[in-house]
Amino acid sequence: MNYGLRTNNQEEMTKKLYNYKLLLILIKISTMPKTIIAGNWKMNKTQAESKEFLKQFLSLIAHRDESTEVVLCVPFTSLETVSLNLDGTGVGLGAQNVHWAESGAYTGEISASMLTEIGVNYVIIGHSERRQFFGETDETVNLRLKTAQKHGLTPILCVGETKAQRDAGETENVIFHQLKEGLVGVDQNNLVVAYEPIWAIGTGDTCESSEANRVIGLIRGQLENKEVSIQYGGSVNASNIDEIMAQPEINGGLVGGASLEGVSFARIVNFQ
Ligand code: PEP
Question: Taking the model in full, what pTM does it have?
C-alpha cells in the first residue's frame, strides 16, 4: 500500500475543492447587484454651494464601506465644478436628464457627449417630476435611456405609481407598463432602476420598507437581468436608511431632500 500517494491525492483533492468553492464565492460576489446610493439635488445649489457641500461631505465619507457606490446627481451648472472636486474620491457624478439627439435645435436640453466630456457617469431618466411637469413619456424615456447607454452613461430609470393609482390597486400594472415600454432595446447590463412611489417623494411619507422590498422584488421579476441594482427612493433620510437597506431586495437609495445636507447624506451613505 502506498500511504504517501494517497495522502498526496487527498491533499490535492482538498485543495481543488477549496479553490472551486472560492471560485463560486467570487462568481456570486461579482454577479450580485451593486449597492448604489445616489443623491438627487434637483434644482438646488449654485456652484459655490456645491463646493461648500463637498468640503464637509467628502470628509465625512472618507472611511466609508468601499463596496457602496456613491453618486451625486447635480444640476447641469454644477457638474463641472463637482467633477473637478470629485477627482480621486471614488464618488460618481450624475446628471438629471439627457436628450436623445446628438446635437441640434432642442432649446434647454443637454446631449450625452456634453455630459461625458466633463466626467459624468450616471444620469437619472424618467424621474416622476419630469414625467409629471415636463411631459416625459415612456417613449421619450426609452429614447433617452438608449442614447445614454450608447455614450457609456449608466442610466438610473425611475418608475413609480401615484397615490390614486396605488389606492386603485394599480401599482403593479403601472410599474410593469413603465418597465415594458421604457426598456425596449435597452441593455440591462448597464442599468439601475429606482422604485420611487410618487406619493412618497418629498412628502416625508416613506413607503414601508417591507412594501418597498415587495415591489422591488416584483420589479426584479420583470427584468431579464436579475443582477440590476434596484434602488428605493421617496423620503429616504438618516433615520430610516438602516431599515431600508436591511431589506434583501433593495440595493440602494435615490435620495432627494436629505442629499442636500452633508451630515445627513453622509449618514445615509454610511448606513448600518
Ligand atoms: C427624489 O427626488 O428622487 C426623491 C426621492 O426625493 P425625496 O428623497 O426628497 O423624497
Answer: 0.90
